[in-house]
Amino acid sequence: MTHATSTDDCPPDPPPWFWHLIDEAKRGPGPFRAALDALSQEQVARAYAYFSDLARIFCCTRYVSRMHPDTTEDGSHDTGFHIVAQGREHFRDVYQHADKVPSGPEPGTKAERMLPGDIIEFYRDKFGEDLPDIQSEYPDEGP
After folding, report:
1. Kind and range of the H or E element at 93?
2. How far apart, in whole angstroms, are the C-alpha atoms of residue 55 and residue 81?
3. How wide is the angle at C-alpha 33 spanned by C-alphas 111 and 72, nearest 5°?
């Protein structure tokens, strides 16, 4: 991977445009869609892959053991989506400190948990096809 890394204990960063997209999502659906619209077809597909890959990191035992006891596999993915939707600094903080994983049954807002689906819908609407499968660039397990 050619993306920026740091000396701390986090996976390699996606490109800066990905975190800009996440920041725009925090501003609302309009800015998020505008930011998606400014991306190339490949970047939109990669945005989905980065979002899903980073969220999946939080589905390993180190993090799931700190989630609500009734959390399902889908719920752990939703928790990961919520963590990524908070932005780069929050993602890195939770990645390094598993005790900061949200422990409620449904963390964050439904809109945060739906961002990956919004990317899929945007891709279909703009490009007229389904998202391609993209090989993961991140580990399946956290540290």
Report:
1. helix 88-96
2. 5
3. 30
70-76: long-range contacts, CB 8 A cutoff, minimum separation 24: 70/105, 71/105, 75/105, 75/106
Contacts of 15 (CB under 8 A, 6+ apart): 3
Task: State how far the Cα of 69 lies from the Cα of 129, in Å rounded to an integer.
Answer: 38
H or E element at residue 30:
helix 29-37
Could you tell me how many residues make up the chain?
143
d(CA 67, CA 115): 21
> What values do phi and psi take at 54, rounded to 5?
-65, -40
User: Which tokens go with 60?
Assistant: 């390993």
Q: Which two tokens stand for residue 120?
A: 């899929």
Which parts of the chain register pLDDT below 70?
1-8, 136, 138-143
What pTM did the predictor assign?
Answer: 0.86
Computed over its alpha carbons, how large is the radius of gyration of the chain?
15
- Which amino acid, residue 2? T
Cβ atoms of residues 134 and 53 within 8 Å: no
